[in-house]
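Hi both,

Apologies for the delay on this - the queue was longer than expected. I finally got the NAP-bound model through. Below you'll find the protein sequence and the ligand SMILES exactly as submitted, and right after that the structure tokens for the full complex including the ligand.
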Amino acid sequence: MAPATVQRKKVCVTGSGGFIASWIVKLLLDRGYTVHGTVRNLDESKNRHLREMDGASDRLVLYKVDLLDIESLRSAIKGCDGVFHTASPVTDDPELMVQPAVEGTRNVMRAAAEAGVRRVVFTSSIGAVTMDPKRGDDVVVDESCWSDLDFCIQTKNWYCYGKAVAEQAAWELARNLGVDLVVVNPVVVIGPLLQPTVNASVAHVLKYLDGSVKTYANAVQAYVHVHDAADAHIRVYEAPAAAGRYLCAESVLHREDVVRMLAKFFPDYPLPTKCSDEVNPKKKAYRFSNEKLKELGMEFTPVAQALYDTVRSLQDKALLPLLIS
Ligand SMILES: NC(=O)c1ccc[n+]([C@@H]2O[C@H](COP(=O)([O-])OP(=O)(O)OC[C@H]3O[C@@H](n4cnc5c(N)ncnc54)[C@H](OP(=O)(O)O)[C@@H]3O)[C@@H](O)[C@H]2O)c1
């Protein structure tokens, strides 16, 4: 973690009970911040993991907020020095994805501008970066890359579409309302869960271990450890000179590499050994740059460790049976 550069103040984290946001809340509390966490459901069972964090009893206040209800956002953001806007649907259902992601982001930006916050950090996605069929194999994927919205629509990739449009809306409102915005674009985030249930990116690993898939796809994907994803958000919030987008990625792996790494650590699970596509050439990993975050002092956790930590966490939470031969 970078040395402290700002006075610890009050910040708001939207969707604070989610996979990445729970880690952001934990690291913020560890660093002495007071956190206004937004949740859609104030039930004790959903939020116990937040309330039990070190520092939470004195410095965490939970607010019931829906992204489409700006009044609820105003009450959570009022009095805050900064906002981490992490809440978003994570789905390919266009009805559930696009409007809450885009209009919700507009509402956060408006409420943040009214409250006069110092900076908003928006959790965008690799989905707003790489969905471009025109990108050549030699291109190094970095913060200058944007997904092609027409391609997202043609391929019905509504998650990537929603995230890209939401990020564009955030930049537009930042300009119009004079808000200091910094964006983190994480790739697939894996690692230990703090929340009680499995989110979509951890389910991506779980499906290889619980026997629910018999083959792996001929596909590549970039990965990052959830601790690093949360750390990146705090670094870009605290560094006065941070600006623009930050691609948050450690490695790009083919699915074959993922199942091989899992099999090395956890050989007793029914991991697939065959690719579902035996016809086409094996997809190649794309080149990427994470230099911008490294310039802020980030040291990325190796992906093998991230995969190991994900499985151990699923076992510890009894979300995956412990198999030991
Ligand atoms: N995990 C990844 O691999 C990954 C990669 C790149 C970017 N991201 C981005 O990171 C962010 C967090 O993702 P995650 O993986 O941590 O997912 P997650 O665990 O599913 O968390 C999403 C959070 O958003 C909240 N939310 C959804 N719709 C909402 C609405 N209408 N109003 C208020 N809150 C709402 C959810 O609340 P409930 O708990 O009430 O459902 C949940 O707390 C998202 O913006 C996602 O696009 C994730």
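Main takeaway for now: The radius of gyration is 19 Å.

I'll put the files on the shared drive as well.

H.
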